[in-house]
Design brief:
Glyoxalase_6; single chain; four-stranded mixed β-sheet; alpha/beta; 8 strands; 2 helices; Glyas_Bleomycin-R_OHBP_Dase; VOC family protein; 32% strand; 2 domains; Signal recognition particle alu RNA binding heterodimer, srp9/1; 2,3-Dihydroxybiphenyl 1,2-Dioxygenase, domain 1
């Protein structure tokens, strides 16, 4: 029998883990993040146990969506029941709208990572 592997966390590189974790905590209405002593590693956890972690990278370069000059390594799809309300909330927290499709919208978080708000 082999060991069971499960997802531990999704990790985002960024220049300021505390600030970016705060953005996602407010966007997703999650409890305050857990911050390591030096602030270089921060963890958000939702009630179901899903974790998003943020790590400081000194020479961080934000991805440029949709181009590949500085490619995205991943993006988050966030399901929402009210796309307009979710849009207003995300923008008020500092997200930048990159593309407006019919059933989803693409944004950049404050560190430049793309994420989508998806109507469900």
């Amino acid at each position: 029998m082999s060991a069971v592997t499960k997802l531990g966390a999704i990790v985002l590189d960024c220049p300021d883990p505390v600030a970016l974790a705060g953005f996602y905590a407010r966007l997703l209405d999650l409890p305050e993040p857990k911050v390591d002593d030096d602030g270089s590693w921060v963890v958000l956890e939702d009630p179901s146990g899903v974790r998003i972690s943020f790590q400081r990278v000194e020479s961080y370069r934000a991805p440029k969506w949709p181009g590949q000059d500085v490619p995205q390594q991943l993006h988050l799809d966030l399901d929402v029941t009210d796309l307009e309300a979710a849009h207003e909330h995300a923008v008020s927290l500092g997200a930048e709208l990159l593309d407006d499709a019919k059933r989803f919208r693409v944004y950049a978080d404050p560190a430049g990572h793309p994420f989508c708000l998806c109507a469900c």
